[in-house]
Structure formats: structure tokens, C-alpha cells
Automatic annotation (TrEMBL):
Keyword hit for Signal: yes
Organism, scientific name: Streptomyces inhibens
Record field: compositional bias (Low complexity): 33-52
Stated name of the protein: Phospholipase/carboxylesterase/thioesterase domain-containing protein
Spans annotated as Disordered: 33-58
Signal peptide: 1-27
GO molecular function: hydrolase activity
Highest taxon above the source species: Bacteria
Keyword presence, Signal: yes
Domain Phospholipase/carboxylesterase/thioesterase span(s) in chain numbering: 141-221
């Protein structure tokens, strides 16, 4: 798998259908309302180990996050991943959906799971009635990185962002606007906002986007003209296609023409950046929907299939060389 050399710092049936048609395309990559916690076998999904919710004061607000620490408590700086949950979801749910903690134990990583305001992220740059300051979550992310560098020995040269759905779009926004903070970024079912909420990459950063070819929530081809949101909810954020999202990062990194190869269960498109070994990659999963490939959690009805062609978590961490 192509990866890169690290760069600088880096939720009755009718009600459900109505929500799927009108509400699932909000804020960056689409609404991902937290589904019932059931596994494929129908039993309750396991929950992350209970631990105190950590807090950080930013912009006069108390923001919450969960933190996974590696078992080894050495003195060396440790790589840090900031992992953004989907819209309507929670940090705890993303931990079960992605199983990032399992990989972190073996790879010695810190993983921070921040909580979005009202369970969503301001992935776009457009101010709204509900979110008059569209930059709140960017500043929160920057402050969280600084906090963990100071207090948890996070390595400022090995900071990465990951997210699902609206959280994937949030990860891409941070990477686009602050490539100097990151060594890499990855989004599952997340695209860059466009139109009045547009986010444009401003510098080189290795990035990976993993997307279901049959995503019924936020299509692979993007959603440039979404329907209005239900009254009182965040306006729907228009997004460009997954390919154009990846292409925008490639262009910002000075990449040449991409190469696409068919692999078992998915197609991989790779752009090679000027920085030796650095790439932008788009993985389009065959017969897959608005889901996290390899996840053990059954997605909500109407979200489509979960691909088992690869495990998105280990694929992303391998891309990050962690």
C-alpha cells in the first residue's frame, strides 16, 4: 500500500424514512444519526471502557472528549489521532464503530474522540442561525491538539485526523485549512463542503478518502444542491464528489495525474504528491453504502451494506504508517 513520509504538524418506519430523505445529508458529509447499538447477531453492541469524560475550555465553552492512552506509559512522544464522530452520534459510538482503540494498543497511539456541539460538526465555512461562528470546531481542534501535546506527550510532528460522515468532512476541513498541524488525514464517507460553505485545501497533506460506491445518504458523486433541512435543524451543507475532494488535496500538494487500480472489492485511485512517498488516495468500495468498512456494528436501515473487502481502520493506520 502506498503511504507517505510524515509531514509538518500536523444518527414507525415513516418517521425513519422522512429522516433519511430530509435529514441525512446535513453538515459536510451527511447526517449519521447514532443507530441502535446492535451487532450483526442482534445483541447489544459492546461499549467502550467507562472512563471520565475529559473537558477543555475553549472560546468560553466547556468542550468534552474521550481519550485512549496506549498501555505503555513511556517517556517518548506518541502519535496522536483526533477522531470525529458522525452527525447525531457520539464519541463512544465511533469507538465501537471503528475499533480504533484495538489497533492503538498494538501501535502505541493516543486517540482523542471529541464531542461535537449538539452532536455535529461545523464542517463547512458558512455561518448559520444554529452556528453563527462556523470556525468554532476548528479552534477547538487546534486547542485540543495543543492540550495533548502539553499534557499527554503527543508528538506534534505526528498528529492525524480521522472521521466518519460529517466527522469525515470535519477531518478534511482541518486538513485543508491547517495542513501545517497534521501529518495526515482520512475520511470515511466524508467529502469536502462546496458552494457557500466551501472548504479549499491550502497546502500539501497526505489524505485518504474511503467511500461506498452506493452510498444512499451522501452520494459518491456529492450533493451540490441538497434539499432544505427540517425546520430548526442545521442547513444542509453542499458537498463536492469524493473524487473531487481527493483531487483538491492532490492539487494543493502538486500532484500529477492519478492512477486507478481495481483491487478485490474496491478501486484505488492514487495521486503522488511532490513530497517523496506522500500520496492522496481514494478508495471506492464496491456494493457499499454509508458505512465504515470492516465494522462489526450493523448500520441503520437504509444506510446500505458494510463492505468487508478491507478494514477501514487498519487501512487508514497503515496509510499513516502507524
Amino acid at each position: 500500500m502506498d503511504s507517505f513520509a510524515p509531514s509538518r504538524r500536523g444518527r414507525t418506519v415513516r418517521a425513519w424514512c422522512h429522516a433519511l430523505l430530509l435529514g441525512l445529508a446535513l453538515a459536510g458529509c451527511g447526517t449519521t444519526t447514532e443507530p441502535p447499538t446492535a451487532t450483526a447477531g442482534g445483541s447489544a453492541a459492546p461499549t467502550a471502557a467507562a472512563e471520565p469524560q475529559k473537558q477543555l475550555r475553549v472560546d468560553g465553552r466547556t468542550r468534552g472528549y474521550q481519550l485512549h492512552r496506549p498501555a505503555a506509559n513511556g517517556s517518548k512522544p506518541r502519535p496522536l489521532i483526533i477522531a470525529f464522530h458522525g452527525r447525531g452520534s457520539t464519541a463512544s459510538y465511533l469507538r465501537e464503530q471503528s475499533r480504533l482503540d484495538e489497533d492503538a494498543r498494538a501501535r502505541g497511539m493516543l486517540i482523542a474522540y471529541p464531542e461535537g456541539l449538539d452532536k455535529l460538526w461545523g464542517a463547512g465555512t458558512r455561518a448559520t442561525e444554529q452556528r453563527p461562528d462556523p470556525d468554532l470546531d476548528v479552534r477547538f481542534t487546534k486547542a485540543l491538539i495543543d492540550e495533548l501535546v502539553r499534557k499527554e506527550r503527543a508528538d506534534p510532528e505526528r498528529v492525524y485526523v480521522v472521521g466518519f460522515s460529517n466527522g469525515g468532512s470535519m477531518a478534511l476541513r482541518v486538513a485543508a485549512q491547517h495542513p501545517e498541524l497534521l501529518a495526515g488525514a482520512a475520511a470515511v464517507s466524508g467529502e469536502l463542503p462546496t458552494g457557500a460553505a466551501a472548504v479549499k485545501p491550502t497546502g500539501p497533506v497526505p489524505a485518504m478518502i474511503i467511500y461506498g460506491a452506493d452510498d444512499p445518504v451522501r452520494p459518491l458523486a456529492g450533493m451540490p444542491s441538497p434539499a432544505p433541512a427540517p425546520a430548526g435543524e442545521e442547513p444542509v451543507t453542499p458537498t463536492m464528489s469524493a473524487r473531487d475532494s481527493a483531487g483538491a488535496f492532490a492539487a494543493a500538494g502538486g500532484a500529477g495525474k492519478p492512477a486507478t487500480e481495481a483491487e478485490a472489492g474496491y478501486d484505488r485511485t492514487v495521486w503522488r504528491l511532490k513530497n517523496p512517498g506522500a500520496t492522496v488516495q481514494l478508495l471506492v468500495m464496491h456494493d457499499a453504502g454509508h458505512t465504515w468498512p470492516g465494522s462489526r456494528i450493523t448500520p441503520p436501515k437504509g444506510f446500505g451494506r458494510t463492505s468487508t473487502a478491507l478494514n477501514a481502520t487498519s487501512t487508514i493506520l497503515d496509510f499513516f504508517r502507524l
